[in-house]
Specification:
- This protein is mostly beta strands.
- The chain has one domain: Neuraminidase, CATH 2.120.10.
- The protein is 0% helix and 53% strand.
- Strands 33-34-35-36-40-41 form a six-stranded antiparallel β-sheet, with no helix packed on it. Strands 1-20-19-18-17 form a five-stranded antiparallel β-sheet, with no helix packed on it. It has a four-stranded antiparallel β-sheet with strand order 12-39-38-37, with no helix packed on it.
- A hairpin with an 8-residue loop joins strand 18 and strand 19.
- It is globular and about 50 Å long.
- The protein starts with a strand and ends with a strand.
């Protein structure tokens, strides 16, 4: 019998900042900074910094001024673009190393919370959480980690206005990678954190607060289960206490990318399986009851590689899945959306792409009963698509700066537009930077966005249900 190790990673002390000085979270011996900004008498946004030590490295401090062009946070340069309109803008955030946004959510104040990974703070990878205003201005940002590598793959605002973050850590816990869950207050301060795992690699991909005030986490485990790697679902109490955990899989490998609590109090999970289905990797969907017992499971795919990256329950009690396929379509990987009934029957599916890689990483039902999805197109552009309730594409847009861009998350916003998070290496301070786009209801940037190429694309569906992407300026 394999012993499950659940450990609180470390006691964390929060030290309140004084005005115009950085804020610090003292834990793991790692500095975590908070942004304080003010307008000087000439209308310049000014950030005063004093000497700060981060992971044993001392950063010089100077007064730095910005007028709609640059922001300095904890010794790291962040290139940004000023908001273009009240409801559309594009902003990049990062330093000279690699920084990626994996998830975004609109917050109760109309702003946004973004989570991902940064290598620009400490020379290693840290989990990164940014709180943005409705116009994309950084209100605060926090990086979390130790001497190893950490990532934040999922964030959700909680019912009390704080945040829950899930990902993985190699600095704390029992094994190589452990699931890492952090509970933050409204200002990004750590309230508690836990690491969960065994002696091998365990990763969290998705977290949601549940109706009982607790949390459900989905990801993958190599420490427990039947095969090489299994889907892992953990149910936690409101303070992170362990309630139950289950591993799902066969003799080969399975992974989960997305979980949601369903209307009946159970859960729906999407990922991929190499143990079941038609062959290779197949999309795998599991319907669980409130205690994690399997009620139904379904595999979708062909002889190639097919992944389910995102799933949501729909207003009719069914499910919408977004992902990718190499079993069907025109190219190496094609974007794949599937609408399922409550019992897993495919009501419609849409495959579309070109000769290179096209993928969906996020999909959500919209207020009109349709669906919005985001991922990347031809391996290098942000792709955002809008489907009607029958799966017909109403519009699609791609965004690029000439380099490599991609998107990992999309949400409809309260003004009827959309917010997208991912990465860019065309804009910002260097390497990859977090890229957040606020789009209008047509999925477009509503003004001239310097350097951003915005394409409105049409799809021609062939008789086999695949699609060929035809781009036009």
């Amino acid at each position: 019998m394999v012993k499950l190790v659940v450990r609180r990673s470390c006691k964390v002390e929060k030290v309140a900042p004084t005005p115009n000085q950085p804020g610090f979270l003292a834990g793991f011996g790692v500095l975590r900074s908070q942004t304080h900004v003010r307008l000087d008498g000439r209308g310049f946004l000014r950030r005063r910094m004093r000497e700060a030590t981060m992971n044993g490295r001392t950063f010089d401090t100077t007064d730095l001024a910005r007028l709609g062009a640059a922001l300095v946070i904890a010794g790291t340069f962040f290139a940004t673009a000023a908001p273009l309109q009240a409801q559309t803008w594009a902003e990049s955030f990062g330093g000279t190393a690699s920084d990626v946004g994996y998830t975004v959510q609109q917050t109760s104040d109309g702003g946004f919370v973004v989570a991902g990974v940064t290598a620009s703070f400490s020379g290693t990878y840290d989990a990164w959480v940014l709180k943005l205003s409705p116009s994309g201005v950084v209100e605060w940002q926090r990086a979390f980690g130790g001497g190893g590598a950490e990532e934040a793959n999922s964030v959700q605002q909680t019912s009390d206005g704080g945040y829950v973050v899930a990902g993985y850590t190699t600095s704390f816990g029992a094994g190589y990678n452990d699931v890492w869950l952090l509970r933050l207050d409204a200002s990004g301060g750590i309230q508690w954190q836990w690491a969960y795992g065994g002696g091998s690699a365990d990763v969290a991909s998705s977290v949601e607060q549940t109706t009982d005030g607790g949390y459900v986490v989905a990801g993958s485990t190599r420490s427990f289960g039947a095969g090489n790697e299994d889907v892992w679902v953990i149910k936690l109490g409101s303070a992170g206490s362990f309630e139950w955990q289950k591993a799902y899989g066969g003799a080969n490998s399975e992974l989960a990318h997305s979980i949601q609590q369903t209307a009946d109090g159970g859960y729906i999970v999407a990922g991929q399986t190499a143990s079941f289905g038609a062959g290779g990797w197949d999309v795998w969907v599991l319907k669980l009851d409130a205690l994690g017992n399997i009620q139904s499971q379904w595999a979708y795919g062909g002889n190639g590689t097919d992944y389910g990256r995102s799933i949501r329950q729909t207003s009719d009690g069914g499910y919408i899945v977004g992902g990718l396929t190499s079993s069907f379509g025109a190219g190496n990987y094609d974007a794949w959306a599937l609408k399922l009934s409550a019992v897993g029957d495919v009501q419609w599916d849409s495959v579309h792409g070109g000769n290179l890689d096209d993928q969906l990483h996020s999909i959500r039902q919209t207020s009109d009963g349709g669906y919005v999805a985001a991922g990347y197109r031809e391996g290098s552009d942000v792709l955002v698509l809008k489907y009607d309730d029958t799966g017909a594409i109403q519009w699609q847009n791609s965004f690029s700066g000439g380099g490599a861009e991609g998107s990992n998350a999309v949400r409809q916003t309260t003004d009827g537009g959309y917010v997208v998070a991912g990465y860019t290496n065309s804009f910002g301070a260097g390497n990859n930077d977090v890229w957040v786009l606020k789009l209008n209801s047509a999925g477009a940037l509503g003004g001239a966005c310097t350097g951003v190429t915005q394409n409105a694309n049409s799809l021609s569906i062939d008789t086999t249900g695949t699609a060929t992407l035809q781009c036009s300026e």
